[in-house]
Amino acid sequence: MQIRKASEEDIPAIIQLLKESLGESMIPKSENLWRWKHIHNPFGESPVLLAEEDQKLIGVRAFLRWDFIHSGKTYKACRAVDTATHPDYQGKGIFKTLTTQLIQEIHEQGIDFIYNTPNKQSTPGYLKMGWEKWGQLPLKLHFHLNSGKNTHPLDPLPWKDIEGLVSQIEDRDEVSDGTALKKGYLKWRYLDCPLFPYYYLSDFESYLLFYRIKEGKLGREIRICDFFKTRDLNPKEIEDLKAQLSEAQNLSGARFTSFSGLSFAKQKEINLGPIPILKAGPLVTLRQVNPDLNPFEISWNWSLGDLELF
């Protein structure tokens, strides 16, 4: 078995392997999605390793680059995402071999830690390779028990209407804890994503809220992915935001709204009812890469937009 770095020329074969190994599942595999995620990411191209035997692709392992800010300092991270082993070669340790070697490579590149949100089936394997459970993401949930049809507009509002506000948010000298808002990040994340449409609420001057409509086990959901402000909102602006969110909830027919409990604790402008913050979100696991940084000692401010699967 040979292990080597992937190149753009390998993308068609990678997509074919992902389909053979995993099927389409909830997230359809495509070259467009792979390029958006692993090539055009504003935090940099993903480190990807391939396993081959007799010139046949039998394994792939990819980490998605991400930068976080905490207390004014930037931390380099990777998210453990796409991985697959050809069905004829499963059970031979290919996943572990690729993952272990890729961890060594990103350590040499100065990555501080790895994070991901594994499912119940994959969690034990990650724990055996040094990942540790951070815990479930706290969620603020607001149940409004709508049962109507989704009459929400299919197309998001024009991006050009918020380009000035997006630039202002990404160019701010005062940075908040959370994802490092590199130039072009918000467009990449919420306009260019090929998987689902994201919508926004805004007064085009002081606040910008991104959300999407998601079908799930509990019913239709308004998922607030990120909320940004250029300053503290006055009472009139808060009422305007409340009215826009209420309209979106009604049009969508969603049964509930969700928002990261880590973000909600610092963003009181969004009123989501009396239910306390619950540890009801995805399980987050972390793996130390930089021996001088323990990621469990940092109070992360993850949004749902940071941890969504795509």
From TrEMBL:
SUPFAM superfamilies: Acyl-CoA N-acyltransferases (Nat)
InterPro entries membership: Acyl_CoA_acyltransferase, GNAT_dom
E.C. number(s) listed in UniProt: 2.3.1.-
Superkingdom to which the source organism belongs: Bacteria
Keyword Transferase: yes
PROSITE patterns: GNAT (PS51186)
Parts of the chain that traverse the membrane: none
Broad class of enzyme this protein falls into: transferase
Keyword Zinc: no
Keyword annotations: Acyltransferase, Transferase
Boundaries of every N-acetyltransferase domain copy: 1-152
GO molecular function: acyltransferase activity
Protein name, per record: GNAT family N-acetyltransferase
Organism of this sequence: Algoriphagus sediminis
